[in-house]
Structure formats: structure tokens, C-alpha cells
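FIELD: query
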Amino acid sequence: MSQDGKKGENQSHPASEANKAIQNDRHLLSEEDIYLFNQGNHFQLYEKMGARLVKQKGLEGAVFSVWAPNAARVCVIGDFNGWDKESHPLRPREQSGLWEGFIPGIKNGDVYKYHIISRVQNYRVNKADPFALCYEAPPLTASVAWELEYQWRDQEWMDKRGPRNAPEAPMIIYEVHIGSWRRVPEDDNRPLTYRELAPVLAEYITRMGFTHVEFLPITEHPFYGSWGYQTVGYFAPTRRYGTPQDLMYLIDYLHQKGIGVILDWVPSHFPSDEHGLGYFDGTHLFEHADPRQGFHPDWKSDIFNYGRQEVISFLISSALFWLDKYHVDGLRVDAVASMLYLDYSRKQGEWVPNRYGGRENLEAIAFLRRLNEEINRNYPQAMTIAEESTAWPMVSRNTYIGGLGFDMKWDMGWMHDTLEYMSQAPVYRSYHHSKLNFRMLYAFHENYVLPLSHDEVVHGKGSLLGKMPGDPWQKFANLRLLFGNMFAQPGKKLIFMGAEFGQEAEWNHDQSLDWHLLNNPLHSGLQRWVEDLNRMYQREPALHELDFTAGGFEWIDCNDSRQSTLSLIRRGCAAGDLMIVVFNFTPVPRLNYRIGAPRAGVWREVINSDAKDYGGSGWGTMGGVTAAPVPFHGRPYSITMALPPLAVIFFKNEEEEL
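FIELD: result
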């Protein structure tokens, strides 16, 4: 347990003697390490900095390395020396700003901090290690010396994951906050640990047919209510749910079950807690000094100085660390828009233009490009996904043609437009029809993920089910329709936990999801609908192979605003691999509803959201319809159906007759 400020007897060898003992040791930072770090080109700093447990000449101990260029003195304090602020000083490495030293007797699990005395106004502070591999469990804030040894068993997944993350692969992401997916009410309502979570989450994801899980940030964070987005430990998973090896076990287990793992990663800002990165050595080291550049008005947090080369080494090392040591399959980069624009959430006069007088953050742009280049170079089978909410061009295009280099980008426009449309009472939807079809004007400008994320069920926004209009039956029908729209659209899919079964209450990070709702047939029917959508999406190439290509999508009729209907075609790579999807966004059944069809033959009803198994009324086409040689909608054939109320039907062309 940390006891900052408590001074006791010096319980270990004098630090200066220990440093002499390893003066020429390979565990110290080399001149090349220092040069690359200062140049912004060292991306394996997790192998070199922090507390590295070693054995040298029979002495067990640790080499400590920390960046504090404006410090006059840096000492390591901890339980091992009674938190004595004088006994274990580090030595500076030339003019690099790095401090380093060996302390014997340090063991795995020992707690420590750095006591820093600044050259600036004799500022003194106890700081956690920016490169710590482990922290104490909050609310304690000290770093913990830790070994990352673990026997992985996911080699089969790692060898074959490339095709699972490829643009033509089906991808349905289940977004999860570990601390509130499921809790243990009989044990003081505590969250599941990483190891407890592994089998139950893997079984659920497998049964539901999701392909990947995305965890809200698991990097160590002092304020639980930030959901991990206020990070202090860029190389350490939160101890709230277990040790680093426990998290490795969770990821390993998911991989063995064929489930990809994506982590939310936050290089955009960090909290100002005293033990964290802010004002680290008595100066604004990681962040900009000017609050117009270094303070985020939305989150009241500090913004990284992307023009400082050591910060670039730090952040890219963090990204590669999770891909290397924890075998994660991708990073979803948070709040990219806030990084790209110097005037993000700022009024005139509250921001500093770039050297050309513009609002673009040139240093952040260069950082993001370099980040994606290094990830692609070192882990080409991994992916990066940008949460970017503006029309910044070529976010998911290669850097060599001027893009930012991400593999995918969240389509926030689709999410906002679709939820706004779906929240309207059906009688008014005809006036908002453009919210449904506008997306196809830009749908292939980027490689999109369609997100129904945690951001839409917090801060008074209510649940997805709560946004739907009408009586209870209509609310569930509308939510099934919303999910059907998502799966018919080009792009990969993301659903936040609980939405798949109709969580009624707004998400609360301190409570478990309301799993008891599945005792209600409407909730269990919705869950079954999402499961079947997931299975169909993976099974049908027409729904995923050309998610990022205009050839994979075609409207049949997108202009029937009077009846609030839509019809479209999805295509796969193989000739003739196509599906028709038809929507009715009103509670009025459409009898003898005719649409054009590109081919003759039988169009089998693959899935219908109004089926009784899903909680619907049971309207449909009795298994399918046969195309007639009657031209319609510019097509040589047409099909006629009974279009159910507040429903979507997916059809597939088949050769055989009914």
C-alpha cells in the first residue's frame, strides 16, 4: 500500500553503489535509445523505461527510467524504503532529460512513485510512473513493479486473424464496459474480474454471433465515472478487475473462442490528477503550456503536445504495447476530431492558429499518420478505427495519398440521422425521409463502422428502446427496424451492450445490465432478432463483402416518402450473389406492395422482423415471392408482397420454385 510522505529507515543498498554495480549493464538505456526517444522515433519504450525488473551480478532489483528534463532531483520512493524521499536518487543521463538508476531488492509487486524536485520554483511532487506496467487498485495511485510473463495459447488465432479483420470480412462489434456488463449482487454488487468475465462473455458473444468485442478503455484511470477515458496509465490495465495477467487471460480466452478484441485508446487528452502526467516535472511536459492549446474545455483535461518528439515516442509506444504484449486485434482511437482541429469546442480568440493561419492541428495530423504507419508496419493484421465526427477527408485512406491511415471510421452522421428519424412518430416520418437516404451520398468516401455506441445511452439520452415512439409493441418493432436498417446498410456494425435485448434504463456504469428483462418475451424476441441478424450478416456475402465498395449497394426505391418505405439491393463479389431488403417505417401494413427486381425466379424471405418469434405480429410473404416479368422501378422484373407494419424483410434470390 502506498504511504506517500511516510519516511522510514533505508531498507536497501545505497542507490549510488547499486548504480556503479551495473554501470555498463545492457539493462540501462543505450545511447541509441536516448537518441531515438528524443527524436520521436523510439516506439518500444515499454521495453526500456519504467521499472524493469532484472537480476545483475546476483542482485535482484530494478532499473528505473523516467523523463523529467526540468527536474533538479528525482528519487524513487515506496514501501521498500519507507517512502524516504532522499535515499534512492536517480542520475541524469547527459542532456537527454532522462533519469535512470538501479535499485537492488525490488521485487515483482513492489509499490513505488517518483519524488520529483523541479528546477522551477522548488516544486515538489510525487508522481506515478508514466511507463508503469501496473498500478495499485484505485483509489490508491502508486505504480507497481510488475513482470508481464504469460503463457499465451492463442497462436492459432494470431496466425489467422488477418482475414477476420479484412475489409471484406463480416464484422459485428459488441461494445462492452467491463465494470457494468454483469455484476455480482450477492458480493456487494462488485464487477466481475477479468478472469470471471472470460467464460461468460465468450459464451454470450459466441451464442449471439458477434465477431469482435470492443472494450471501453481499460487503461488505468483514477475516476471510475470517466469510463476509462481519463487515462493516467498508458501501459497499465486498470487493477479494478485484476492483474495484467488476468487481462491477458481474458483476451487469450476470447481469441481461443474465435473472438477478436478491440481496445478503446485515448491519445487525445488526459486528466490533471496530481499523480498523473500533468505538470510532471514542474513544467508542462506532456501537455501544452498555453491553455488555448493544452486544456480541453469539454472534458476539463490536458491535451498532449503533439509537437514534442518525446510525447510522440511515448504515445506510439503505448499503442504498439497493447498490440504486442496483450495481443489485441485493433485500437479504436477516441476523440480524433478534437485532435484535428485547433478550434474544437472553442470560441474565437480561445485558440491558436497553425503557422499558416488555419484551424488544422498540423502536429496532431502528423502524429496520427505516423501512428497508423507504425501499426501497419509492425502489426499489419491489426486495425485502427477512428472516432471522428466531422467531414475531415480521407480519415480511412492511406497516408501515401494524403489520408490519415486509419482502417475504418465511425459513421456518426448515419447514427445521428437515423436515430433522429426513428425517434419521430411514424405519422411525421414522411417529412424526414431524407434522413434515411442521405447517407448514400457519402457512404463510400470512407470505410465506415455504423455505431450505436455507449455515447447514445448516457447523459440523459435514455436507452435506445426509450428513444423509440409508440406503445410498448411499437417501441420494440421500431428497435428491430433500427437494427435491420443497420444491417442492410454498407459498413461494419457496432452495438453497445444491453441494446441487443432492449435495456430500458439509461446505462449506469455502477450497475449491471438488466438481464432479468429477458424473462419478458418482447425483450427475448429482440435479442433473438439481433442474434439472427448477426448470423445472417456473417452467412451472406452480399451483406458484408463489399461493405466499402459502391458496387455492393443499389437503391430500388429510396423516394417513397409518402408511404415511408425503402427498398434496396446488396451485392457480393460473386455474380448473382445479391439480396433485396424492404422497409416499412409506419405501423400501416402495405398490401400488394410492388418493387422492381433485378432477376427472375424465387425471392426467398430470409428474415422478417415482424415474425412472431421476434415479438412481431406475424405478417409476411409466407416464405417468399416469385418475380413476375413486369418491369418496375427501372427493373425487368418485379415482386409483390404484403409488407408488414414497422418491419424489414430480407430476400435472397434462388433458382428453385416455391
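FIELD: remark
Confidence is low (pLDDT under 50) at residues 1-15.
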